[in-house]
Predict the structure.
Amino acid sequence: SQTIHQWPATLVQPVGSPLSLECTVEGTSNPNLYWYRQAAGRGLQLLFYSVGIGQISSEVPQNLSASRPQDRQFILSSKKLLLSDSGFYLCAWSGRRPSGANVLTFGAGSRLTVL
Amino acid sequence: KNEVEQSPQNLTAQEGEFITINCSYSVGISALHWLQQHPGGGIVSLFMLSSGKKKHGRLIATINIQEKHSSLHITASHPRDSAVYICAVAAGGTSYGKLTFGQGTILTVHP
């Protein structure tokens, strides 16, 4: 069965420190991968998506970057965090189950607080 | 104006009531999602629709492509249905995870 793992679940970081959030998917190959953010009191927003290794599309200008070094690994990074980077970050994958049904599955999320 | 508008923003119901949440969108879409977000933040995909109607247990989702409108219905609501329900659309011709989100509907069901 397909599963998605996202970590860390919670982190508190000082302004100016680096960030790395990681997401891995199991049980599928060549998934489309996504990073979303939910800032406090605001709706969800797509940050990045990837259709393959090394292929990253950015949806909004920001202080963050994404990378896909392996087929089922998606990493969200920052060199220097800003207060405005605080929020709830969700990774997701889309693809087809063996049954042929389309699927969109979210990770459990990472709550980032920048102080 | 947001591309995806949900109504109502807040909804309070008594256990057993029939609930409807509405979603209107302004772009051509390849898919519409109904998502459920619980207080801890985790999100579950309830339905993905491109036409017609889908049913899963007490949940029913419908979509009218011509009118650019979708509804999520909950029959015989229960306190465990309390959550934020989010409508999201993938624009036509794009990956169906490349989503634009509505602002969400906060549902509270009282026993």
Observations:
- The longest strand of chain A covers residues 87-96.
- The interface with chain B takes residues 32, 34, 36, 38, 43-46, 49, 51, 59, 88, 90, 92-94, 102-106, 108-109, 111 of chain A (CB under 8 Å).
- Residues 13 and 114 of chain A are 5 Å apart (CA to CA).
